[in-house]
Amino acid sequence: MDITIHTTALPHSDADASLAFYRDTLGFEVRSDVGQGRMRWITVGPAGQPGTSILLAPPAADPGVTEEERRTITEMMAKGTYGWILLATPDLDGVFEQLKARDAEVVQEPTEQPYGIRDCAVRDPAGNLVRFQELR
């Protein structure tokens, strides 16, 4: 099988704040921006990697989600326990310093993990955990 990861989705609670984080803080390209207000879908991705994207989407837009599920999603997002993504870089320290300089909410400074990787973590404006693993 020839399979690639094309797009993954993360929820947003404020489209403009999420757009600013992924575009201005992480330096991602904006690939599309459709809808308006709370019903806005934004696709971003790393420069030079047009085949890989993140869809920033309203979390409860699916008509199959009940009001109770919407409340649960909103609560989990507020606690930072709903969405997360793992990114990778060969320059973890450089990326971390840029994230701090751009006022990203730091969750974990670069750390050597007991399971053999070195990583750090920040939160995006919706509370999603964004982890960065050092490529070795």
Account of the 3D structure:
The protein is of the alpha/beta class and 136 residues long. It has 3 helices and 8 strands. The strands form 2 sheets. It has a 4-stranded mixed β-sheet with strand order 1-4-3-2, covered by helices on one side.
Protein topology:
Elements: E1 7-11, H1 15-25, E2 29-36, E3 39-45, E4 53-57, H2 67-79, E5 84-89, H3 92-101, E6 105-112, E7 118-123, E8 129-134
Parallel strand pairs: 1-4, 5-8
Antiparallel strand pairs: 2-3, 3-4, 6-7, 7-8
Fill in the keyword field for this structure.
alpha/beta, 38% strand, four-stranded mixed beta sheet, 136 residues, 8 strands
Judging from the principal axes of the Cα atoms, what is the shape? globular
The total beta strand count reads 8
How are helices and strands ordered from N to C?
Answer: EHEEEHEHEEE
Helix fraction by DSSP (H/I, runs of at least 4): 25-40%
Question: Strands of the largest sheet, in order across it?
Answer: 1-4-3-2
What radius of gyration results from the CA coordinates?
15 Å
| Low-pLDDT regions | none
Structural class: alpha/beta
Distance between the termini: 27 Å
Oligomer: single chain
By DSSP (H or I, 4+ residues per run), the number of helices equals: 3
* Strand-residue proportion: 35-45%
Pfam family, one: Glyoxalase
Organism: Kitasatospora sp. CMC57
Protein name: VOC family protein
